[in-house]
Inverse folding.
C-alpha cells in the first residue's frame, strides 16, 4: 500500500536521501533491534543514527515533511 509512495519519494529525493526497503520475514532480527511493532514503519537515519520513525500508512505530505526536517 505504501510502496508506490516510497518509490515516488525515492525518485524525488534522488541525490539527497537514500531509501532502503527491508523484508522483515527475511531479516527478523532487524525489526527487533529497532523495536518495530507495526508494518509499515519508516525510519529516518542521519549519519547512521535513528532520528525518527513514521508508523503506519500516512499521507505523502507527512512523509515528505518528516524527511524535509532533516535536510536543512
Amino acid at each position: 500500500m505504501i510502496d508506490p509512495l516510497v518509490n515516488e519519494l525515492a525518485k524525488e529525493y534522488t541525490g539527497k536521501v537514500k531509501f532502503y526497503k527491508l523484508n522483515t520475514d527475511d531479516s527478523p532480527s532487524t525489526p527487533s533491534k529497532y523495536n518495530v511493532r507495526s508494518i509499515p514503519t519508516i525510519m529516518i537515519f542521519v549519519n547512521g543514527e535513528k532520528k525518527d520513525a513514521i508508523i503506519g500508512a500516512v499521507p505523502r505530505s507527512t512523509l515528505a515533511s518528516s524527511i524535509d526536517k532533516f535536510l536543512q
Remarks:
- The longest strand covers residues 49-55.
- Residues 3-12 form the longest helix (10 residues).
- The radius of gyration is 12 Å.
- The beta strands are 41-46, 49-55.
